[in-house]
Structures are given as C-alpha cells and as structure tokens.
Design goal:
Layout (H helix, E strand, L loop, with lengths): L8 E7 L2 E9 L3 E5 L7 H12 L3 E5 L11 H13 L14 H16 L4 E6 L5 H6 L4 E7 L9 H4 L6 H12 L4 E6 L7 H11 L3 E6 L28 H17 L1
Parallel strand pairs: 3-4, 3-5, 5-6, 6-7, 7-8
Antiparallel strand pairs: 1-2, 2-4
C-alpha cells in the first residue's frame, strides 16, 4: 500500500484499543516526533526528514489533520477546534497530562523494544510540546525536546506557568533530570501561546536539567523575526547559517546525537 506521506513507510500501532497510523523514515536510534497544529504539514515533514538524515529512525504518529496538507489559517483553526473537543486532549489542564500521552508512551516503548540503543528521542511541538515531558516519565525516553510547548492554553496566571503534567509525573521528571536526563526547550520570546512563565517554571523545577533556547522576537529584533513567530523548527525556521532558528535546529540535532547515538 502506498504511503500517504511520500518518502515514509506507513503502518499502524495499537495500544488499549486505540489504533493510529504511524509514518516512518530512516535508520538508527528511534525518535518520535509529535506534530504541531494543524498536522503533518510539509514543514513538519521536512523537519522529520532532516532528523532522519542525521542517522535516526523517525516515527511520526498521525494525531490530527490530514497528512501532507499545507498550513492555512482555516485549516489550523478547524484542527484546533477538533482538538479542543477531543477526549484525548485536555487543553486547559495545568497539572495533568492529556490522555493521548499514554498511547505515545506505549509507542516509545515499542520503538525502543524494536531498535534498542540508549533510548528514544521525543519531540513535541505546539499543542504536543509538553507531551515530551509526560513521555519522559518512561525511562526509555532519553532525549525530550519541547518546541514552543503551548498547553495548557495560557489563560490566567497559573496556566501561563503550567506544565501540563501531574504532580506525580513531575516528581519523576525531576528525578530523571537530577540523574542527568536533560530537557531541551525552544520558544520565541514574544510567542503568546508559549509565555516566558512556562520556561521560568521549567527552570525552577528542573534547574540544570533544563536547557532553554529563547529566540528574540521583540519589535526591532536584529533578525527581523516577526513578533508572533511560533514554530521554531518548522514554519518560522530560516534555514540559513547564523540565523537563530537555524542555530536552534542544529542544537536539536546535536542534542539527539549526544543523548542517543
């Protein structure tokens, strides 16, 4: 059967009666990439290809949207609406993970059981950004990356600093960070969906176990990054040497190599 995503093989993975399509590419240690809203767009696909080219086996679970469809405002708004009413996502929970993370943890365990090695990478973006923290509770996840983590929706002071993680799971994440498993985070400084309070909370909770990259998107910034820039390694990536988004992309790739290869 031909894959709906060119250059990727297509299969399925089932956990607790939930079955989803998984797109796969590459060879080497496993990296699970959780797509941003509205889905696996050409920019997300290009990022996954870049990770695979670095010597990793990329797994892209189909979480929402239509694989390969380009980004548009209408498409994004429609998918946000669907996510908001889905039982698998809890978009306002500060101290609790979305139910879909149980499925994603199982996927990570399956990937590691097949490929072995030091562990699995988990990259979340936008609405799935904080999911990498939830997945880190499982010891097979050795390289968690949070790119513009946008849950919970930053409505009110508590949610602006929210980590979308239960107290029990946060305790495990803190233990793993203290034992040497670093969390990498990326955001633009003026991104309203991923406020600075969220990274401040990560630094407060994880200390040296959190490496945060915050890219200046203030008015008049030297790289002319738009104030509402959001997607660090996909839609707002400027793939040119010296640009801070390119530097951030290189850091993500280096982080995966350091932790997994």
């Amino acid at each position: 059967m031909a894959s709906a995503l060119e250059g990727f093989t297509e299969s399925s993975f089932t956990h607790e009666a939930a079955t989803r399509t998984i797109f796969r590419r590459g060879s080497g240690p496993g990296v699970v990439i959780m797509t941003e809203i509205p889905g696996i767009t050409p920019a997300v696909k290009a990022f996954a290809e870049r990770v695979a080219a670095e010597g990793f086996t990329v797994f892209l679970p189909h979480l929402f949207g239509r694989p390969g469809q380009p980004l548009s405002l209408g498409y994004a708004l429609a998918q946000i609406g669907r996510v908001c009413i889905s039982r698998e996502f809890t978009v306002l929970a500060s101290r609790g993970s979305s139910p879909i993370t149980a499925y994603l943890r199982a996927l990570c365990r399956s990937v590691h059981a097949e490929l072995g090695g030091k562990g699995v990478g988990a990259i979340g973006m936008c609405m799935t950004g904080n999911f990498a923290l939830s997945l880190m509770v499982d010891p097979v996840v050795m390289a968690p990356v949070l790119s513009q983590p946008s849950l919970p929706f930053p409505i009110g002071k508590q949610r602006r600093a929210g980590l979308h993680l239960s107290d029990a799971d946060l305790a495990v994440v803190k233990q793993r960070a203290a034992a040497g498993v670093t969390v990498l985070g990326l955001r633009f400084t003026h991104d309203p969906t991923c406020p600075g309070e969220r990274f401040a909370a990560l630094r407060a909770e994880l200390g040296a176990g959190f490496e945060g990259i915050e890219i200046d998107s203030s008015p008049g910034n030297p790289h002319k990054i738009k104030r509402l820039a959001h997607s660090v390694v996909t839609n707002d990536l400027v793939d040119e040497a010296g640009h801070p988004t390119h530097t951030a992309l290189l850091r993500v790739l280096a982080f995966l190599r350091e932790r997994l290869q």
